[in-house]
Amino acid sequence: MVVDKDAVISSTWQTIYNYLSTNLVDPKNRGVKWIFGTYPDTKSKRFPGWPVVVIESPDVRLNHMSVGKSLKEWPIRIRIAVYTDWAEHADSIADQVVTILRQNEANLEQEGLYNFKVTASPIEAINLEGNRIYGKAVRCSFQFVEAE
């Protein structure tokens, strides 16, 4: 999916979702949806259990540049959070996320997302509804450039 200048937020999210939903391996091999756009309702009967991956809505800014011709540069940041009941899964799933995006960097550029950079948080343990859950965030940044 090519990132659309008129739908930068939704098309960026969909592009990242497409790569991860196609390539990310569920360590529990459940065969259910476990990648979401927002944190799922853990009390719902449809909750798949842990782990889950949340691809948050991108943070997008618009910068105007003039280098011979006018350009619009869109710095894009997107946070991908991993929540799991096994601390080891937090790192292994985060590693998969980074690897999938890194291995598809040339494809992402063809779709309009340049200058891929990534940082990751340490694992954080939280108590959620009486359960110990581990969270880890992968923060990705890209540039979308539009020539005028």
Kindly describe this structure.
The protein has one domain (5-147): Phage minor tail protein U (Alpha-Beta Plaits, 2-Layer Sandwich). Helix content is 26%, strand content 39%. The chain has three helices and eight strands. It has helices spanning 8-23, 87-103, 105-110; strands at residues 35-36, 52-55, 59-60, 63-67, 69-84, 114-120, 124-128, 131-147. Strands 1, 2, 3, 4, 5, 6, 7 and 8 form an eight-stranded mixed β-sheet that branches. A hairpin with a 2-residue loop joins strand 7 and strand 8 (131-147). The chain is elongated, with a radius of gyration of 17 Å. The chain starts with 7 loop residues before the first helix and ends with a strand. The model has no long low-confidence stretch (mean pLDDT 91).
Averaging pLDDT over every residue, what do you get?
Answer: 91
| CATH C-level category | Alpha Beta
Stretches with pLDDT under 50, minimum 5 residues: none
Total domain modules:
1
Alpha plus pi helix count = 3
The CATH homologous superfamily corresponds to Phage minor tail protein U
Helix content: 25-40%
Query: Would you tell me the structural class of the helices and strands?
Result: alpha+beta
Anisotropy-based shape: elongated
Question: What quaternary form is this?
Answer: single chain
Number of strands: 8
What CATH architecture would you give? 2-Layer Sandwich
Largest sheet geometry: 8 strands, mixed
